[in-house]
Hints:
The protein is α/β, with parallel strands linked by helices. The protein has 9 helices and 5 strands; from the N terminus they run βααβααβααβααβα.
Amino acid sequence: MIIYLDTNVFGRPFDDRSYLRIDIEAQASLAILAMIEEKQMNCLCSDILRLEVAQTPMPKRMRIQSLIALCSTCISETDVIKKMALKIYRKIRVEPRDALHIASACLGKAKYFITCDNGIIRKANKIEKDLKGLGYNIKICGILDFIEEVKE
Length: 152
């Protein structure tokens, strides 16, 4: 199974875990990363992911970069990705960087796009429907929803 983790999933273990939701999501993130490390699933990286991580303050950046090293494939930002991201941005109205993440996940043939972003999670059904119209079958889900699906 191929998955794509949004930048916030990689960073979640290093966020302020004094908040219950963040602590639970951090544990879920670490569980997913352990599954990737154990080769139970493959994770994609992308140029937009690397850019966002490069803009993260130290020392969190170094920690996240060590986790990104677990990714099996990196999706380069090509004209095809940029055009698809523009379609996603215009049709779905997500942030431009989110559109690049989603386009990278689709073109990398990910089965899941996993995020902690409430805005994307709220629009998940619409995003999935619109992506199907473009010929991509990908599940957009929150990190906890993904853990529940994997447990089944």
